[in-house]
Amino acid sequence: MAQHGSESYFVVGEGLLSDSGAGRAVATAAAAPPFRFSRMGPKGTGRQLGEPNRRKLGQLMTGGGGETSKIPAGFTYLGQFIDHDLTFDKTNVMLGTTVSPTALLQGRSPSLDLDSLYGAGPQDPQSAKFYEADGMHLKVGETIAADGVPKKAGFDLPRGAGSSAAAKRRAIVPDPRNDENLAVAQTHLAMIRFHNRVLDSLPGSVPPAQRFAQARELVTKHYQWMVRTDYLPRICRKSAVDSVFNSGRKVFEVGAVPTAVPTMPVEFSVAGFRLGHSMIRASYNWNAIFDGGSGSLELLFTFSAAGGNLGGGERLPSNWIADFRRLYDFREAGRANLAVPASKFNFAKGLDTRLVDPLANLPAKSFGGSAIPSGDPRRNLAFRNLTRAKMVRLATGQQMATFMNAKGVSFPKLTKAQVRDGKGGVELGTLTQAQRAALLKDTPLWFYILREAELNGGKLRGVGARIVAETLHRAIEGSQASIVRDPAWRPTLGPNSTTFRMVDLLLFAFEGKKSLLAPVG
Ligand code: HEM
Fold it and tell me: For a substitution probing ligand 1, which of 108, 177, 277 has the most ligand atoms within 8 Å of its CB?
């Protein structure tokens, strides 16, 4: 998957679902399936919105506006990084002929184990290129001097392989999607640095043969802890997250053997976790040079190699290095000296039914659609999300609410008036009466979940909270290193044995230094 979004979905038990329609049976899991999806709830056959309705709704949703949240904007792109970790097909970076059926099955299954960072590990011939010659440290790249900021080693993703300019530009990381915009690329870089620092901090007594494996396990478990205790409660009602993690799952792969390889529910991939699209801002106070909103989303695409062309050069110009203090609030970790004035800080857009307008016309490179002309609805992210739902015959919001309540998760279903009116979200006035009636009766899951969040002060609840928390719980449970399967494990790299947040991860990765967290200011 070089870009976002599968063009076809192999759903366990149903076969390959694609634009061309019906499920095509694929003989065995090991034969060819690109990635193992499943269905959490019922099928939404006959309940999908027609194309004119999806077009109009897509347009309305990407009309801009909407509230700004209290969630620091870095969490938007942490979410994108998490999504890529979950949906990464590791077999893309493994040597085809030597992959065993078990490895194939595992590689094409979702887990929260950072394979998007580690690939198939330093011993795998195809993944060795992500590592330094010592076979333990992950490679970092160097920026190019720009705007009076000198070149800096360790502030860009590693690049430079191949002979053409485009090949040299490409990031040498397992998942090229993590170079689709600069914010996710710098998040990936922070994770590389985190691994390298953890490795360097292991006691000298750990034998060389065990150092990589020990570092990887520590990194993965700290990352999972952060996702569970910091990321999830920011986007989901806390009681829903606690219920899933403390009392177990009720709707997804209930009773699965914990070590069995998980699947990815289409309800999460096509609707639930696309919540992040509503958090994206049109512009950022990126750093001291691209300040005052001049770090536009468009420029964040340009200064990446998968969404743009790094501005024409072969590496990131130094003037674009992130200022993490503007994306995360280090006062949470008692580091007031790493806080920027409030006017410089970036909060994510609120979780609601409104998306910023640049998402109405995505850069074609970001989804592999170069042949699709500007202005075509297929470049509209909301239209794409709604259309994917039709392709996989996704259950509607109402179907999922009924299904979950029957499984013992009790919460109120949204009323038609709530779906229609929301709270500060998109207004449906320009839909025809028939279109509106269809939407209120059979609400596309993604829209329903965003309406739920909008009515809940910007946090997922009900259907949305359950889909997201249960899928992430299962993905952590099924990972090779797993805090769910090792409940006595506690973080050791944060301020105490119960706390490890994204700010703690960044402080560790960048040695707590302003000169590394924000070299441009
Ligand atoms: C500027 C940032 C982003 C852009 C341009 C972007 C764009 C896209 C595109 C084009 C697709 C494929 C649509 C399709 O054809 O089905 C997609 C899929 C998806 N996006 Fe995003 N996205 C961004 C950020 C995020 C964030 C922040 C999250 C979550 C927190 C997220 C979650 C997902 C998920 C779950 C999918 C489906 C699975 C996958 O292909 O990864 N995205 N996105």
Answer: 277
